């Protein structure tokens, strides 16, 4: 609270509040009641795409990081190659390759078209979720590589000397220490993941940005929908930051 009371920040907050008030009072919001249900659905789709892609991506990042940090070469090299490809190519290109590439192959495979999964695979959101998850896994896999590599070797050697099995060493020493060190980075990467979700609108997934584009096309009103979308993303990003700061506060402090 003391940081917010600094003069320059008070001025910035006052300017921001004035700008928001001006937009609300002078903007054309006649379209809002009609598109409110669609906006709600778009926000919900954005949230679950973000949550699922982060959960799936992080579950993939753990073995990717561990393989690079301490795995044998036949696991480390493919993991390193995967992270390099994901981090070296645009996410938009990855989304298009999965949707227009992999998605175009499935209709020509009879057993897929006749399976119970076809009503799901014919939609766009599974490819969007897969692309977002793989992207998060590629970036966080590199982050976790550094985290696992920074775990003090003395603690691991001491656990081995006590006869602790590898799985218990990983669960009780390597993973907690690595997670503790990368938690601030994960918060920033999750915010970046949120800001990457509008790219799925290019393959007809109706999330919040796609709703704003729909409003602009139907009503020719440009700025108000974009301002509303910006405010929604800002609130979601703020909640993510607060959530990760709460997790950081719950982590026990470790001696240097």
Automatic annotation (TrEMBL):
UniProt subcellular location: Cell inner membrane; Cell membrane
Membrane-spanning parts: 42-67, 120-139, 169-187, 226-247
GO cellular component terms, A-Z: ATP-binding cassette (ABC) transporter complex
Entry membrane topology: Multi-pass membrane protein
Residues in the signal sequence: none
Classification via InterPro entries: AA_ABC_transptr_permease_3TM, ArtM/GltK/GlnP/TcyL/YhdX-like, MetI-like, MetI-like_sf
Gene3D superfamilies cross-referenced by the UniProt entry: MetI-like (1.10.3720.10)
Residues covered by the ABC transmembrane type-1 domain: 43-245
Gene transcribed to yield this protein: occM
Similarity remark: Belongs to the binding-protein-dependent transport system permease family. HisMQ subfamily.
First-listed, main subcellular location of the protein, grouped into a coarse class: membrane
Any one Gene Ontology molecular-function term assigned to this protein's record: transmembrane transporter activity
PANTHER family reported for this sequence: ARGININE ABC TRANSPORTER PERMEASE PROTEIN ARTM (PTHR30614:SF10), MEMBRANE COMPONENT OF AMINO ACID ABC TRANSPORTER (PTHR30614)
Record key words, sorted: Cell inner membrane, Cell membrane, Membrane, Transmembrane, Transmembrane helix, Transport
Protein name in the entry: Octopine transport system permease protein OccM
GO biological process entries: amino acid transport
